[in-house]
WAP four-disulfide core domain protein 2 (Echinops telfairi), 125 residues
Amino acid sequence: MPSRGCLGLSVTSALLLGLLLLGLPPGPTEAQKTGVCPELPRDLNCTEECASDNDCADNLKCCRSGCVARCVLPNEKLGSCPQLNSAIHPLGICEDQCKEDSQCPGLMKCCRNGCGNVSCATPNF
């Protein structure tokens, strides 16, 4: 019969508890890249291009859709949308030109315009 401590723990359990109390970090953790995965179309070809963001180049994220995992450009890009001045309404195209940042070229973001819709705009950094 294994030796028991005053709390009824085996020696092995007591050692594991001691290691946890020392505050040792659990094994290596995966770094998450910024941004949100865009909605991906369903693909019947179940291919896994990545397992985590670390498998993707640059600022691409590993995103899943069904049985597919691909490296894609995230929705949310760096920077913030320019503030609309309520005194002077900027001109805007009165229809939505984008739904998410990943639909805009380069560093541009999908932001509200002066017409109340959204279009690609140069962000503030």
